[in-house]
Amino acid sequence: MTSGIAAGTEAALIETAHALADAARDAILPHFRASALVVDNKQAGGFDPVTEADRAAEAAMRAVLAQRRPDDAILGEEAGRAAGTTGLTWVLDPIDGTRGFMSGTPTWGVLIALADAHGPRYGLIDQPYIGERFEGGLGRATWTGPRGGGALGVRGTTRLADATLMTTFPEIGTPAERAAFARVAGGVRLVRYGCDCYAYALLAAGHVDLVIEAGLQPYDIQAPIAVIEAAGGVVTDWDGRPAHAGGRVIAAATPALHAAARAALAAPGPAEGG
């Protein structure tokens, strides 16, 4: 088995990622805000929704890869793993934020990452309904949308007291994890909820400063890691280790802000204001 990205292949890989995002857009948009949307529950004793749009989008992306990159591995939320021989894995979340999708909010997204043995090398966050796309890695850190585009870049915020913090669910993780999150939330300027992967795009674009979450899967976070790191930010787990396997994740605009948030997560008591 070979490993890594061969020199001179970056442009073709980026082109493939955009082809995947285009295919997902085409598969998803006919279902968004449709009155007859079919929603199934994947979790016995709880609620983990999946829609026909999730399944159709992942199938469309896998079809593109079968044509363009048949020897690469795939990890997708809906159809699981497919082995490869190149040392590269496409990590796919066809709709990150299915609860938002089924509620009609335009803050869900398609997540596409390209990873090797060391983690994500390139990531793409696409919001099909708005028409915005954020990409990072392999020499890219850019966004495009209906009102233009440009370079991605995180803000220079270093103090919790000046920071805007986002997470998807107010009831983050376990009771202990919720208490840790509350320590950070108590020391920041503003807390907002509910944006799923779009929150990570906003961090990379310089609009918010922190995203803290728990209970993530690899397909939830690998694309955001690549995009945020390319934009100059920091992403680790709550203990400061690589986060590409998922779990508890903290994404921050600057190393100083990341350190302050990690300290607040770890230590009981009021959050450090910077």
Automatic annotation (TrEMBL):
Cofactor list: Mg(2+)
BP GO annotations: inositol metabolic process; L-histidine biosynthetic process; signal transduction
UniProtKB keywords: Amino-acid biosynthesis, Histidine biosynthesis, Hydrolase, Magnesium, Metal-binding
Pfam families according to UniProt: Inositol_P
Protein family membership: Belongs to the inositol monophosphatase superfamily.
E.C. number(s) listed in UniProt: 3.1.3.15
Binding residues for Mg(2+) 1: 77, 95-96
GO MF annotation list: histidinol-phosphatase activity; inositol monophosphate 1-phosphatase activity; metal ion binding
NCBIfam families noted in UniProt: his_9_HisN (TIGR02067)
Entry-linked SUPFAM superfamilies: Carbohydrate phosphatase
Top-level lineage group: Bacteria
Record-linked CDD domains: Bacterial_IMPase_like_1 (cd01641)
Protein name: Histidinol-phosphatase
Pathway entry: Amino-acid biosynthesis; L-histidine biosynthesis; L-histidine from 5-phospho-alpha-D-ribose 1-diphosphate: step 8/9
Binding of Mg(2+) 2, residues: 93, 220
Catalysed reactions, semicolon-separated: L-histidinol phosphate + H2O = L-histidinol + phosphate
Protein species of origin: Roseivivax isoporae LMG 25204
Taxon lineage: Bacteria, Pseudomonadati, Pseudomonadota, Alphaproteobacteria, Rhodobacterales
